[in-house]
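Researcher: Going back to the complex we discussed earlier. I've cleaned up the inputs and rechecked each line, so this should be the final set. Can you rerun the prediction on the complete assembly and write out the structure?
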Amino acid sequence: MKSLSFVSSNYNKYLEVQSVLSNYGINVEFASISLNEIQSDSIKNIALDKSERAYREILKPLIVEDDGLFIDRLNGFPGQYSSYIFKTIGNLGILKLLEGSAFRNATFKSVFAFNDGKSSTTFVGETKGKISYKITEGGWGYDPIFIPEGLDVTFGVLQMTNKKSFFSHRTKALNRFVDWYNRLI
Amino acid sequence: MKSLSFVSSNYNKYLEVQSVLSNYGINVEFASISLNEIQSDSIKNIALDKSERAYREILKPLIVEDDGLFIDRLNGFPGQYSSYIFKTIGNLGILKLLEGSAFRNATFKSVFAFNDGKSSTTFVGETKGKISYKITEGGWGYDPIFIPEGLDVTFGVLQMTNKKSFFSHRTKALNRFVDWYNRLI
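Model: Rerun complete. Updated structure for the full complex:
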């Protein structure tokens, strides 16, 4: 079996990645490393750059992810800085910014970058939806305020019954990665 | 006269830098370059890293600046991502996040990094104050919502009468730079 590491400082993300990849018989190790990220308008560029830094650290084939929640009414905010903005103003802050607004469209985007020291390849996944009016239970990060299109519950609630992965931007990107990765063998 | 460039994509910042340095007989050129920035909790690290990227571009002695507005009630937000957050949610967003809060303390921080290809040195300036309840005229960026300690008008209003520089975090950092720079000769 090929060896593959997921380099991240976020264990919740690792659990989601492992859960999807194990369905395809791919074993992924958690390499808990906090990497410098560039500031960029493009999460794809952030992921690519991060995959190169990560490879220099561990010198083994790896994947990294960068993701973000892009809210139309807020010009894409929190976007590529979702993690920092979650830690400072959190979901309460997002709901406050959208107070009084019925236009709540948002997109969760995920980019995985695979790097084996020879080249780096990216895989994108997106899930469209809306920002809820209340914070629900379940999940982590922005999960409790994001309702995927066609449903009436948040990622948080879906996570509690192990259904988030069917709708997740992260799963979509990972599925694209798996299609490609399995042809590498 | 020694040659010195200010590398930035922000012409408003250049005008402020030039206005302060010209008082000391230092001539500074504007090098309009947009540089990649790392994501970091520390604006000092961002400025240091940026000064190295800038030197590789122009190969001449230079200064760069990184700055941010740190709001206590919002755990330091918008902080090191002040520029992105201004472009997305703007001053209206900041006021909305602080709606109903009387605790409005904030600090404007500026870090300049000088780089001549041999070494990089940083200079810090800070101005404490409060976030206003309304957006005023004048200035740019967060100037129209920041009231420096001891005054009752915003940086925006002060800028209109050319008084911002007496209270500015940027001026304080530049003064420290000048003290050091003039001894370099």
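Model: Worth noting: Residues 4-182 of chain A form a domain with the Maf protein fold (CATH 3.90.950.10).
Researcher: Good, that matches what I expected from the previous run.
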